[in-house]
Specification:
Length: 274
């Protein structure tokens, strides 16, 4: 089975071609906002890609969203490789970014080696949490594009004492700005700002040439990223305040399954079950 219809191959369908490498920087220069969501599996990735998303992130949030863990700290490189391969099969157009999980960047060499493994699984770029300019430089030197991630760092949720807004105090704001500049100098292509006090996220966005991509960090960022399950209403047990649910997939699943159960149990009364 071919992914494309006969007249829809990458060669004759510009929409099916990968966004260019300088897409993120160009978007910021041209004032185009960057739309990003997470995906962890083939069908979701394919639907997001076909819907015109700019960036698809195989986030280590896979640990919570798909695997039912309480946080992201137990996600392994094997988990990330498995889900990145599945997502890569569905993404033809968007840029595919994969997270370097907790414990995968203990040294710059390990960071570079693991970035190359994710690239081998189909990622166009990797994302690294926290301020590690040496790791960023090593990943760049290995030939892999890398995004930074500052503000709330889910891989350090225990040390950070939970999920809280970062940068409310002057010292914390200065620290994030300094780290952002250090990461930009080390060569990141974009910076995710998670739960950063919106005026501080706006300041960082102004200060950097590379784009910022915010999550719960206000509208001034150059792009926005959310967990897809929050946007489509597929995790009704928890949704962060800043994520608006634009569909009710959980409700649709419950409705369809209840209909199937009822249809199955009524066999004999109705022949139309399938
Ligand atoms: O793991 C993740 O999903 C993230 C967020 C920025 C969405 O890192």
């Amino acid at each position: 089975m071919s992914y494309y219809d006969a007249d829809e191959t990458p060669a004759n369908n510009p929409c099916a071609m990968k966004l260019p490498d300088d897409f993120l920087l160009d978007a910021k220069r041209d004032g185009r906002k960057i739309a990003c969501l997470t995906a962890y599996d083939y069908p979701t990735a394919r639907l997001l890609d076909e819907a015109g998303l700019d960036v698809i992130l195989v986030g280590d949030s896979v640990g919570m969203v798909m695997l039912g863990h309480p946080d992201t700290t137990c996600v392994t490189m094997e988990d990330m490789l498995h889900h990145t391969r599945a997502v890569a099969r569905g993404v033809k157009r968007a840029r595919l970014v994969a997270d370097l999980p907790a414990g995968s960047c203990e040294s710059p060499e390990a960071a570079a080696e693991n970035a190359l493994r994710l690239a081998g699984a189909g990622a166009d770029a990797v994302k690294i949490e926290g301020c590690s300019p040496c790791a960023v430089e090593a990943i760049r030197a290995a030939g892999v594009a890398v995004l930074g991630h500052l503000g709330m760092l889910p891989q350090r949720v225990a040390e950070e004492g939970g999920y809280r807004i970062k940068g409310r105090s002057d010292s914390e704001a200065e620290r994030i700005l300094t780290d952002a500049r250090a990461l930009e100098a080390a060569g990141i292509v974009a910076l995710v700002l998670e739960l950063v006090h919106p005026p501080v996220a706006a300041r960082i966005t102004d200060a950097l040439a590379i784009p910022t991509i915010g999550i719960g960090s206000g509208p001034a960022c150059d792009g926005q990223i959310l967990v897809t399950h929050d946007v489509i209403g597929f995790s009704p047990w928890f949704r962060p305040k800043f994520a608006k649910a634009r569909a009710d997939v959980a409700g649709e699943i419950r409705r369809a399954v209840a209909e199937f159960v009822a249809a199955t149990r009524s066999v004999g009364q109705s022949t139309k079950n399938q």
